[in-house]
């Protein structure tokens, strides 16, 4: 007999502190071991940042260096906080607090309000839009539905940037922000909104942070009490911190520097909410002695997807672009990204649905496919196309899994059956755990076969089917587990909002997709006016749109398709153009100019250093016939593919042998050292100095530092151990 394959959903808790470090790469391990002083982790997409910081916390707790109750880990969404709690629990560090900024502040506010202010904390306003509508009506400002939503967002932005109503018009002018209405009108509505909150004794989510900040600033005794409680802080997605959140973090810290932040300036996509990467980019300035660790090994995406992602950022400008990380894929090669142009939006949706159906037929689970768009209004045509194609889907941003009515009813039924034990007639003659779950859920509407079509009925079935699959995984991971054990697991997951996967294609906006990943991703509607969005006017706004597309690309593990349509509706004028961001990257769109290499991985401790100055290059031309080069392979060789080569064949083979040894030592594919085309270019040009080697496409500053001496020595005829047989 062979042992059952352990489920990755339910890994065994590491037996020792050192075992927590098993499986981490060198940079992730450095993060886990950096338990003292300020630490900044610059983590590219797919590089395992959550793994690194949860293992850091768990190692500190398991080694007795960090007391669980003294650690506060903060992030930006309940889902991310729930995932962090789940991972810490699996690593044996379940007592650590992992919360959003708002939930951490709300707990402190509820606890200290009676002492600091007296009485009960005012009621928390779940949705502010109705109160904004009332304020606008009081001010005799007419707002339609869309304007009402936009003005509400403006008020939220003003509050997180600590802008009071009277200062709003000046703040808008200074930030070059496009206000949805006359700033004076919004200022008036904002002031009335604040007055109505006071009159009705309610507070909003931004007030939670503002009031907590005010109490900590005014009451040093309360601030000291919180600082005694929490002595170590970890902040995930640090590029998304607002000025108000940074102020709260500073007050939590006091004069201490026991802080670890994690972020990626290239994934800053929420500036419209007040988020800014400046705190991440200025971290070394504020903390000159900080340990900085860069994570660039991408475990999520294939080299083909990573190449496109790196190419997108290579054309970027601005301060965030100067600190970009050049990812290095750790996966086997996959298919090249696909590009599709359609006559109109319905044709694009139908074509996407056909490709989705083909992927499902080829074995890609529906739950591992996503269709991502710029704005939510684009979803309807894709919902219709997928429904017409018979493909199940789910809208991202809908009700949370464990809050759904059918899931709550299923939980009640499972809990009742667990209490009844052998006295439940539903469980007569049912032996194993998955069969028991299927029997219980059949009473709540689950069937072996899914209902036809889409809509609410199919959504409910998919939720219950997700519970069945979870039970099957749980039983495989823990043979002998009972229904009561499963119910306890579901309760813990519900508390952490750690939901199982619903098997349907995900439809989501690019913003909502942040932090998620799928085997196959379709990026749709990539035409000028939508990407970048038409109201992105300034250079900073356009660069944020580029980063948003980068986030979309890096959601894909293997399959990636990018598409656009030439008109909005059938028969319309074909006036649209594909997004400028793909110029030089998609076939037939011209050559991609080099903007300099991004930062490599590694560790820095307490030293300064600026970004390298970028070099702008003109069109690449063949060094044999002078023709303009457009293909990436030709540009590496600096000659047309069919122009004669003067390559030194012996040198090329020696370089290949050396590369093979390097790749084995690094545990990476050979092309991660140098591609074949780059080796051919080196063997043709036989560089004699670092400068001559550096100008060869595919070398770059990082590889020049790492491999330059060996390559130049081999070119000079020296033996650099190119064979494994050398002793």
CATH class category label of the largest domain: Alpha Beta
Structural class determined from secondary elements: alpha/beta
The parts where pLDDT drops under 50 for at least 5 residues are 1-7, 593-597, 604-619, 723-727
Q: Compute the average pLDDT.
A: 83
Architecture overview:
Residues 590-610 have a biased composition (Gly residues). Residues 645-725 form the HRDC domain. It catalyses: ATP + H2O = ADP + phosphate + H(+); Couples ATP hydrolysis with the unwinding of duplex DNA by translocating in the 3'-5' direction. InterPro entries: DExx_box_DNA_helicase_dom_sf, DNA_helicase_UvrD-like_C, DNA_helicase_UvrD/REP, HRDC-like_sf, HRDC_dom, HRDC_dom_sf, P-loop_NTPase, UvrD-like_ATP-bd. This protein folds into five domains: 17-114 and 209-295, 3-Layer(aba) Sandwich (Rossmann fold), CATH 3.40.50; 124-200; 338-397 and 504-582, Rossmann fold, CATH 3.40.50; 401-496, no CATH class; 619-726, Orthogonal Bundle (DNA polymerase, domain 1), CATH 1.10.150.80. Helices cover 45% and strands 10% of the residues. A seven-stranded mixed β-sheet has the order 3-2-6-7-1-8-17, with helices on both faces. Strands 11-16-15-12-14-13 form a six-stranded parallel β-sheet, with helices on both faces. A two-stranded parallel sheet has the order 4-5. Helix 5 packs across helix 10 (205-218) and helix 25 packs across helix 26 (676-685).
């Amino acid at each position: 007999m062979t042992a059952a394959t352990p489920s990755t959903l339910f890994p065994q808790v590491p037996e020792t502190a050192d075992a927590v470090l098993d499986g981490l790469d060198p940079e992730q391990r450095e993060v886990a071991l950096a338990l003292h002083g300020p630490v900044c982790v610059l983590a590219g997409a797919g590089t395992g940042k959550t793994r690194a910081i949860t293992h850091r916390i768990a190692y500190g707790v398991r080694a007795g260096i960090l007391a669980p109750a003294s650690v506060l880990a903060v992030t930006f969404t309940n889902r991310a906080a729930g995932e962090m709690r789940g991972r810490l629990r699996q690593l044996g560090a379940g007592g650590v607090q992992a919360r959003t900024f708002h939930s951490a502040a709300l707990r402190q506010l509820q606890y200290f309000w009676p002492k600091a202010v007296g009485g009960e904390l005012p009621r928390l306003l779940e949705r502010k839009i109705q109160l904004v509508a009332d304020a606008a009506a009081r001010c005799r400002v007419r707002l339609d539905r869309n304007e009402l939503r936009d003005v509400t967002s403006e008020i939220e932005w003003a509050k997180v940037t600590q802008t009071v109503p009277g200062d709003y018009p000046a703040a808008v002018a200074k930030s070059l922000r496009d206000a949805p209405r006359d700033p004076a009108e919004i200022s008036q509505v904002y002031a009335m909104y604040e007055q109505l909150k006071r009159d009705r004794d309610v507070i909003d989510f931004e007030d939670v942070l503002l009031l907590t900040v005010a109490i900590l600033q005014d009451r040093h005794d309360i601030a000291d009490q919180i600082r005694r409680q929490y002595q170590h802080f970890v902040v995930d997605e640090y590029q998304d911190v607002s000025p108000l959140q940074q102020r709260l973090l500073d007050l939590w810290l006091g004069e201490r520097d026991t802080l670890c932040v994690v972020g990626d300036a290239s994934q800053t996509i929420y500036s419209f909410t007040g988020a800014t990467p400046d705190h991440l980019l200025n971290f070394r300035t504020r903390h000159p002695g900080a340990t900085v660790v860069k994570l660039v090994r991408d475990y999520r995406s294939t080299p083909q997807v990573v190449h496109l992602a790196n190419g997108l950022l290579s054309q970027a400008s601005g301060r965030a672009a100067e600190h970009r990380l050049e990812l290095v894929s750790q996966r086997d090669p996959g298919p090249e990204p696909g590009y599709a142009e359609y006559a109109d939006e319905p044709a694009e949706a139908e074509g996407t649905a056909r490709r989705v159906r083909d992927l499902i037929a080829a074995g890609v689970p529906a739950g591992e496919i996503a269709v991502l768009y710029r704005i939510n209004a684009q979803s309807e045509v894709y919902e219709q196309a997928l429904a017409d194609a018979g493909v199940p889907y789910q809208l991202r941003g809908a009700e949370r899994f464990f809050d759904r009515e059918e899931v709550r009813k299923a939980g009640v039924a499972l809990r009742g059956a667990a209490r009844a034990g052998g006295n439940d007639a539903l469980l007569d003659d049912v032996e194993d755990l998955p069969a028991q779950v299927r029997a219980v859920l059949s009473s709540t509407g689950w069937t072996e076969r899914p209902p036809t079509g889409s809509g609410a009925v199919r959504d409910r079935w998919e939720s219950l089917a997700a519970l069945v699959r979870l039970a099957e995984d749980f039983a495989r991971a823990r043979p002998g587990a009972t229904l009561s054990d499963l119910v306890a697991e579901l309760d813990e997951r519900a508390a952490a909002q750690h939901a199982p996967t619903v098997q349907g294609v995900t439809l989501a906006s690019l913003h909502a997709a942040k932090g998620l990943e799928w085997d196959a991703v379709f990026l749709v509607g990539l035409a000028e006016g939508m990407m970048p969005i038409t109201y992105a006017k300034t250079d900073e706004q356009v660069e944020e749109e580029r980063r948003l597309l980068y986030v979309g690309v890096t959601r894909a593990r293997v399959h990636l398709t990018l598409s656009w349509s030439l008109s909005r509706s059938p028969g319309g004028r074909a006036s649209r153009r594909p997004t400028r961001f793909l110029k030089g990257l998609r076939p037939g769109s011209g050559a991609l100019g080099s903007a300099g290499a991004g930062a490599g991985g590694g560790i820095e401790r307490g030293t300064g250093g600026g970004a390298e100055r970028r070099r702008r290059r003109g069109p690449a031309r063949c060094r044999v016939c002078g023709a303009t080069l457009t293909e990436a392979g030709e540009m590496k060789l600096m000659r047309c593919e069919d122009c004669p080569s003067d390559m030194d064949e012996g040198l090329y083979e020696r370089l290949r042998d050396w590369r093979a040894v390097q790749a084995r030592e690094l545990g990476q594919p050979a092309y991660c050292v140098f591609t074949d085309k780059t080796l051919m270019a080196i063997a043709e040009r036989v560089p004699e100095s670092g400068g001559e080697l550096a100008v060869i496409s595919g070398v770059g500053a990082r590889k020049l530092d790492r491999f330059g001496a060996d390559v130049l020595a081999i070119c000079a005829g020296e033996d650099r151990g190119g064979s494994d047989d050398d002793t």
